[in-house]
Amino acid sequence: MSEAFDTYQTPLSSRYASKEMAHLFSAENRFYTWRKLWLNLALAEKELGLPVSDNAISEMKANLHLDAEQFEIAAQEEKKRRHDVMAHVHTFGKVAPSAAGIIHLGATSCYVTDNADLIFIRTALTLVQSKLAVVIERFAAFAKQYRDLPTLGFTHFQPAQLTTVGKRATLWLQELLWDLRNIKRARDDLGFRGVKGTTGTQASFLTLFNGDHDKVEELDKLVTELSGFTYAYPVTSQTYSRKIDIDVLAPLASFGATAHKIATDLRLLANLKEVEEPFESTQIGSSAMAYKRNPMRSERICSLSRHLMVLHQNALMTASVQWFERTLDDSANRRITLPEAFLTADIVLTTLQNVSEGLVVYPRVIARRIAQELPFMATENIIMAIVKKGGDRQEAHEKIRVLSHEAAHQVKQLGLENDLIERVRNDTYFDPIKDELDALLEPQSFIGRAPEQVDKFLADWVAPALADDELKTALAHGGKAELSV
Asked: Would you say 436 and 148 are in contact if contact means Cβ atoms under 8 Å apart?
């Protein structure tokens, strides 16, 4: 039986996540990145005068990728040495024998483990940022399409003043824009651990360069540049500060809160039968109740978003207990937390995009609900119209109050339709304005500046945010989101 079926695998990678994000945190990419970091260190040390041969460099360059045999050798070495980095130093030396004596020269394990993590984090943040931009574009198109479709607003999930379907979507969009800003900020702020030695003092490198401080600083700078970073953190302990992980996971957790809110709104709207997520013709909503159309995608978003929000707590707790220059109780935790956070964010984004691309709006259901509630909301308009015709405001208010309570009794006690307007039509007191009632009950007159707010928000905030060249490229390549399950 295949290992994929007889051993536990995280559903994040086996069931949900994109190939790009799953590969980023794979063993193959991790150990390839370690070898690339060892190569960068050797290149910089050679440039600064240390005895690193051309053959050593050539053999390292030719063997950056591991094959199955090397993975097996590394596994056996780690079992024997109880040290993953040294196991891979030994394995790399076997295929690059000319470099065996200089691989990892002067470095500590965190040179590869921490610097590799920072490389993965930066790449992962870029992937998340790109996918988030696509989600924003999709919801922006939805907001534009329904910019002026009146719908009943809710406060406390109780009927409130009207808004529009598009205006409600801008509330989601604004939070997504803040998430985009936060994720980009975290990505752009990210530095490199660089070449700092066992406790961050660079003592081993100072020895290698015979006390030449300038060369040690230049080594740090060269390796940082070779690894694609603009700067290294000026001081570190053995590790880069675990506070960086807090800064990275915070915007992901915040995005999780946004996604959960959007998906919850959609679940409530599905119950109201006003807006539904995509539902394939062959999809089954319930194994027992054949008629059901459960909002399973939105439910999945909520489920995974909760996991994403919780993972941030791990980073906070880990950073708080790093004694002095380091302890090792961060290692196993971070091996789980960092990949899971990005895999989860990736899955939530894919699912949210899929939902946004197939939302179904039911205008007649929306109009019916408005019709049930609008008469009560229109009472102030009716009173004002009577006053304009010479009526007494207090008298009109009392008339409307009595009729409203009678209509409410019909709805709440008898389960009938709201007949307030018919009661108004049948009351001779309101004869002066009866020809105005249809206009007074026009839903468009109750949505205020909602359509204009949508237009201005999309033009002034969404369009500029997506005008970034990097995001424009992502949008150009952003195809339709398909879910594997």
From this structure: no
Q: pLDDT class for 82, splitting at 50, 70, 90?
A: confident
Secondary structure of residue 185 in the 3-state scheme:
helix
Distances from the Cα of 116 to the Cα of 200, 248, 448, angstroms: 17, 15, 53
pLDDT tens-digit series, residues 120-179: 999 999 999 999 999 999 999 999 999 999 999 999 999 888 999 999 999 999 999 999
Helices (H), 273-330: 296-320
Tell me whether residue 260 is one of the annotated catalytic residues: no
Catalytic residue, from 156, 287, 477, 484: name it.
156
User: What pTM does this model have?
Assistant: 0.90
Question: Which value, to the nearest 10 degrees, does the dihedral of the CA atoms of residues 382, 387, 388, 391 take?
Answer: 120
Does the domain at residues 379-440 carry the CATH identifier 3.30.160?
Answer: no
Q: How far apart are CA 213 and CA 207, in angstroms?
A: 10
pLDDT in tens, 236-249: 999 999 999 999 99
Contact call for residues 197 and 205 (beta carbons, < 8 A): yes
Write down the CATH number for the domain with range 110-148+163-278+290-361+455-474: 1.20.200.10
| DSSP 8-state class, residue 239 | S
pLDDT of residue 2: 56
Give domain limits for the chain.
23-105, 110-148+163-278+290-361+455-474, 379-440
The CATH H-level superfamily of 23-105 is Fumarase/aspartase (N-terminal domain) (1.10.275.10)
CA distance 315 to 254: 14
Annotated catalytic residue within 14, 58, 286, 303: 286
- Spatial distance between the Cα atoms of 45 and 52, rounded to a whole number of angstroms: 7
307 labelled catalytic: no
Mean pLDDT (the chain, rounded):
92
